[in-house]
Amino acid sequence: MASTTTPATPNTTPATPNVETTPKAPVSLTPTAVGKVKEIMSQQNPVPAGLRIGVVGGGCSGFSYSMSFENAPGMMDKVYNFDGVKVFVDATSVMYLNGCVVDYIETLEAAGFKFENPNVKSTCGCGSSFSV
Questions:
Q1: Is residue 105 part of a domain?
Q2: Does a structural domain hold residue 10?
Q3: What is the tens place of the pLDDT at every residue in 34-55?
Q4: Which of 2, 5, 91, 129 has the most C-beta neighbours closer than 10 Å?
Q5: Tens digit of each residue's pLDDT (9 = 90 or more) over 60-111
Q6: How many CB atoms lie within 10 A of CB 28?
Q7: Is the backbone peptide bond immediately before 46 cis, with ω within 30 degrees of 0?
């Protein structure tokens, strides 16, 4: 009696490639803010790797925003890219910055970065601190 062997059929399910998806950034920078950050970064020596945006305890209302240049992200940081500007956000700040828009404004009286945060319940008179 002859035995027949059926060839194994290869798995025809298409393989899903390992596609790295960037999570939605909790904070966004306007084109004006990105341009100003690039301008300031280009004047630093050495040029920093990115911009850290965070929330720190303190101020009249309980929290205030922080911005600083960094040479590398921290171990627990999320890294986001805005037109070539790397933005580092620590895990704790992510929840306070969700939906926040950072703009750069220039008026006759002042110039600086402005945070528009939908999570803020109140701010103080100085405009530099907030509560959620």
A1: yes
A2: no
A3: 999 999 999 999 999 999 999 8
A4: 129
A5: 667 888 999 999 999 999 999 999 999 999 999 998 899 999 999 999 988 9
A6: 18
A7: yes
